[in-house]
Amino acid sequence: MGFEGYSILELQQVKGFARELFGFLILSLKIAIAEQYGYPSKMKTLLEFFKDSSSLNGNNATFVENLYEQFLEDPESVEPGWRQRFGEIHNGVAYEIPHGPIVERFGQLAQKPQTRIAQLQGFTEESVKKQSAVARLINHYRVRGHQIASNNPLGGDIPALTDMDPAYYGLSELDMDTLFDTGALYGADKLPLREIIKRLKEIYCGSIGSEYMYIVDTHIRRWLITRIESYTANLKFESEKKIWLLKLLTAAEGIEQYLQNKFVGQKRFSLEGAESLIPVLDELIQLSGAKGVKEVVIGMAHRGRLNVLINVLGKSPSSLFSEFSGASTSHPPGMNSGDVKYHMGFSSNVETPGGPVHLTMAFNPSHLEIINPVVEGSVKARQDRAGDNGKNAVIPVLIHGDAAFSGQGIVMETLNMSQTRAFNTGGTVHIVINNQIGFTTSNPLDARSTLYCTDVAGMVQAPVFHVNGDDPEAVIFVTKLALDFRMTFNKDVVIDIICYRRLGHNEADEPSTTQPLMYKKIRSLKTSRRVYAEKLIQENVISREETTAMELSYQQQLEAGVIVSRPVLDSNIYSYSAQWNQFLNQNWDSPCRTAVSLDHIRYCNDRMLRLPAGFELHPRVAKVMENRRKMAAGGMPLDWGFAENMAYATLLIEKFHVRLTGQDVGRGTFVHRHAVLHNQIDNETYTPLKHLDKDQGRVQIYDSLLSEAGVLGFEYGYSTTMPNTLVIWEAQFGDFANGAQVVIDQFISSGETKWGRLCGLVMLLPHGFEGQGPEHSSARLERYLQLCAEHNIQVCCPTTPAQIFHLLRRQLIREFRKPLIVMSPKSLLRHKLAISTLEELTDGEFMPVIGEHDNIDPKKISRLIFCAGKVYYDLLEARQLDGLKNVAIARLEQLYPFPAELFKAEIAKYPNLKEFVWCQEEPQNQGAWYQSKHHFSDNLKSNIIVSYVGREASASPAVGHFHVHIEQQKAVVQSALYGSPSGK
């Protein structure tokens, strides 16, 4: 019997049957011993000997199986006699399960008298082949049954899979009533083949199509097999449960009908056709509470959002109706512009069997799946707050559209983050509202290149359950299974609700113009509620009159404007919302002291220099640490790395938390930070910031995966949840943030004014023209300045170590939470002039404007150069070299909010000023010029000439040739100092 045509996976699935074959192996070995040395005296018959030896009656099978697996891993580890026997049977094949070789071995034994023992038990070569065929058939249902499942409410052609036909395995009608080993299918060890096939079709080809056999972890796969194959046994609902399901479907359908009739033509992105989402969420929340979950955070786009808010989270219908009518005026502080109703978030508390559960619906713009990492980040923050069992106290639930799940790259990024140290939230329950159409005019054939919209989930080996949305009981079974999986293994799981969209992309859209056949079918379908109601009527669970009364009662509740979901508990149960109150309505310019004592600095530095015994630093890192010792002692000027680390350390001592992620952040892209140290002996890591004090704040420093949108979205979500954590995302180069522009535009810059969501996220964006070409020069400063309005964000260009020290500390110490965009330096990290003193840390503060430092007579100044960033040092060195006395240089360290009063105070120092020059490295159409020049004009006297100096407008941020860069940079500096690129 050969193995051509069998996959490794198929061979692995006959492992249970192989246990029986191992029993034969024992038998053959013992018979061989008996032939050579004589049968044991106690043996009366060969049959008794077989019974004593059989794997069916003893523990020998497990022993031999384990011994054989040990042989496969290391033949030399097995005793020589066994090694020889296994070698003969295994015969050098590459697969793990010794199926064919064992069968062949017993085929050879057929010529010997003892083979009659096997025949007495029904074991012949033919029966072994038949059992093998059945095992392979069972396996194929597990692997491919989902492809022929009847789980599409729209129907459609089911493919004919030849390898699902019993005849493909040599099984015929004559075998249908033969008993075969089932591998404990449905809890039965043996069943007739006819019953085996019937049960397999019911489990794998009915309302649920299960994909999980690609999971490589055998334990997880076996757990799923056990749970999935108990489908019928666990699909027994009491009448009360069935009536509750009907009530939920009635609510899901009822709110849509009410809105359609009362607010004709208004967009609401109806859930009609996918009403089973409401039972899924209700079941998920109740079961979560029973398992000890305290918070559920939900992220979803707009389809079905209003339905979920009303029927699951308990939003007041009257409040929603006010939003529809335009009469609603209530909004959180800071929410000036607002947003459409189907983007708004909500939170509430509901009772469950395990106590109150806090529900949060995240605010979400129209960028669909971009909410995914934001929710994950918020969940991570909540889990950190919850403590050691946080991953099982707070769970994320993400609701996707089918086309978006397969089409949006952020889905892949978020999945890829799910099991990493920095971003693991203990598994997400993904729910796909599979309308089978992306948007009204799309052809499903153009929506993706994969069989299912959920195939991307296979990258993290998440099981996927494709369930018929018109079968609410199957939906509930899958929900229970998915939640149990998540809570057991802390991994992602996907519920794919196969349904349809009864209306178009929105309520004003006419879908049949581009999808005539699909919508002809849809309009002929009964609603999910009606299908289930008729089923319960036939089962005598409920009468037709009662179903009608149920509908009427729901509509009456809506008319009354009362809450129609499960009862909502007092909001005081969840106390964390109040943590943001102190940051509301604060004055931007409220004073705060960021300086620290010298003793404080030296204590922190001393702690950071203490390493575990035997920890060997790289020589270059050891030099950095030694220099930091000297800096704290006052023997060296402070560099950037020292000041930045001191900012983190002092905040941690003050019991604030620090979270820093991004590519290379542990050591820093430009090797300046060294916050995470690596032992050169064993590559173990040590983070000194974690070992400052026993009662310090929490530290999380992670080198992130190669993602911008996913990671930045995650950190935004984290920062909106934890106001007392310094949350920082650092780009490897500033322009890498381009890949996360949607997060910046839709959340960071506008989240407060749209939704009232405060955020203190810090973005460190390396910026500066160093001759490294277009992609590694500019952090696109102009883009952030273009987003500035209403004091929404801070944009700063610190140029000294003391400035970054105070800037980072200010972010947490003042009672104000605004995103901070830092154009952080590259060459300045080690520039000989970019230094600070200990006194600037102990007595100073962040300065939005830094005026002239050199000893220059203000009366002689006729030309004042203002700049931001690295170019200051180029200008300073050139002026000192030329000995100019009539030119002053000042730095604008905070570009937004523009420090008008400090700017005017600097201008006032120079009574004879004639020319104001804005100098920048960036091309004229980039950088700060176009977004800031009105600030200059508004705060200067009319007789002062305002001029721009910098590179000419360019489509590209920078040139690619280093020598051209040098020429351009020199021309910029000379033009700023002298008014001409030629200089003097």
Automatic annotation (TrEMBL):
<dbReference type="GO" id="GO:0005829">
    <property type="term" value="C:cytosol"/>
</dbReference>
<dbReference type="InterPro" id="IPR001017">
    <property type="entry name" value="DH_E1"/>
</dbReference>
<dbReference type="InterPro" id="IPR032106">
    <property type="entry name" value="2-oxogl_dehyd_N"/>
</dbReference>
<dbReference type="Pfam" id="PF00676">
    <property type="entry name" value="E1_dh"/>
</dbReference>
<comment type="function">
    <text>E1 component of the 2-oxoglutarate dehydrogenase (OGDH) complex which catalyzes the decarboxylation of 2-oxoglutarate, the first step in the conversion of 2-oxoglutarate to succinyl-CoA and CO(2).</text>
</comment>
<keyword id="KW-0560">Oxidoreductase</keyword>
<dbReference type="Pfam" id="PF16870">
    <property type="entry name" value="OxoGdeHyase_C"/>
</dbReference>
<dbReference type="GO" id="GO:0006096">
    <property type="term" value="P:glycolytic process"/>
</dbReference>
<comment type="subunit">
    <text>Homodimer. Part of the 2-oxoglutarate dehydrogenase (OGDH) complex composed of E1 (2-oxoglutarate dehydrogenase), E2 (dihydrolipoamide succinyltransferase) and E3 (dihydrolipoamide dehydrogenase); the complex contains multiple copies of the three enzymatic components (E1, E2 and E3).</text>
</comment>
<dbReference type="InterPro" id="IPR005475">
    <property type="entry name" value="Transketolase-like_Pyr-bd"/>
</dbReference>
<dbReference type="InterPro" id="IPR029061">
    <property type="entry name" value="THDP-binding"/>
</dbReference>
<dbReference type="GO" id="GO:0006099">
    <property type="term" value="P:tricarboxylic acid cycle"/>
</dbReference>
<feature type="domain" description="Transketolase-like pyrimidine-binding">
    <location>
        <begin position="638"/>
        <end position="831"/>
    </location>
</feature>
<dbReference type="InterPro" id="IPR042179">
    <property type="entry name" value="KGD_C_sf"/>
</dbReference>
<dbReference type="GO" id="GO:0045252">
    <property type="term" value="C:oxoglutarate dehydrogenase complex"/>
</dbReference>
<comment type="similarity">
    <text>Belongs to the alpha-ketoglutarate dehydrogenase family.</text>
</comment>
<keyword id="KW-0786">Thiamine pyrophosphate</keyword>
<dbReference type="GO" id="GO:0030976">
    <property type="term" value="F:thiamine pyrophosphate binding"/>
</dbReference>
<dbReference type="GO" id="GO:0004591">
    <property type="term" value="F:oxoglutarate dehydrogenase (succinyl-transferring) activity"/>
</dbReference>
<keyword id="KW-0324">Glycolysis</keyword>
<protein>
    <recommendedName>
        <fullName>2-oxoglutarate dehydrogenase E1 component</fullName>
        <ecNumber>1.2.4.2</ecNumber>
    </recommendedName>
</protein>
<dbReference type="Pfam" id="PF02779">
    <property type="entry name" value="Transket_pyr"/>
</dbReference>
<dbReference type="InterPro" id="IPR031717">
    <property type="entry name" value="ODO-1/KGD_C"/>
</dbReference>
<dbReference type="InterPro" id="IPR011603">
    <property type="entry name" value="2oxoglutarate_DH_E1"/>
</dbReference>
<dbReference type="Pfam" id="PF16078">
    <property type="entry name" value="2-oxogl_dehyd_N"/>
</dbReference>
